[in-house]
Amino acid sequence: MEIFGIPSQALFGQLLIGLINGSFYALLSLGLAVIFGLLNIINFTHGAQYMMGAFCAWLLMQKLGLGYWWSLAIVPVVVGATGVVIERFMLSRLYQLDHLYGLLLTFGLALIVQGLFRNEYGSSGQPYQIPESLQGGQNLGFMFLPNYRAWVVVASGVVCFGTWFVIERTKLGAYLRAATENPKLVQAFGVDVPRMITLTYGFGVGLAALAGVMAAPIYQVSPQMGADLIIVVFAVVVIGGMGSISGAIVTGFGLGLIEGLTKVFYPEASNTVIFIIMAIVLLLKPAGLFGTQK
Q: The whole model's pTM is what?
């Protein structure tokens, strides 16, 4: 069976790859949007923290024999805790300065983290096995759907929706949004705004680590895996709108699918299509598709 002259298995296979990539784009850009929305800091360490999540899962398997499911529970908390330390002892000192200082600090931290892991484990990738419960796949007739990849798409969607719901539809989310506009007023209501900011940064970092754990069985675990992805994720965030939660989610999944379709119909442009879209969006709507100009 062919669709637009393309074998259906090839078309749907590329769409699946695009949806998987979109799942990671959405999770990572969501973490960036959460951090930027509250702290107004462009967190360049995000790619390194994604890599740390994958490496922590690999180390838990190699050193302690703890499998994938344990890693999903432990790693986001551990890596998120390192984010809390970074925010408390480094980023918190820069809030009164120009935003450029926060960007430079996080960029420097990213280089340090990547360098440390590269010196310790080398540049070659480390394999991470798919958990037994998610091995195999389903024959849908028009394509073969691996169970693990289906799990990644569903789990990413659930985490993204849950984060959006908490921030946009709950009292806690209302406090978070209010703290970005008027922190002194929110603090007058008895809310510990500095602690809220610290935990929010830790949560955003935890999302990056969670994405890293989920990526480990699909991509090889290597020190460069975050650096290869973070530029694309920043483009996704810019297109969706800096600080926009819904923009990060919708744009992440949507651009993953567009990238997959481009690989089918015009493979030469598949590596640049997201940046082409970013340039067009910046020209027509500088605040992003879902952003608001401040």
A: 0.93
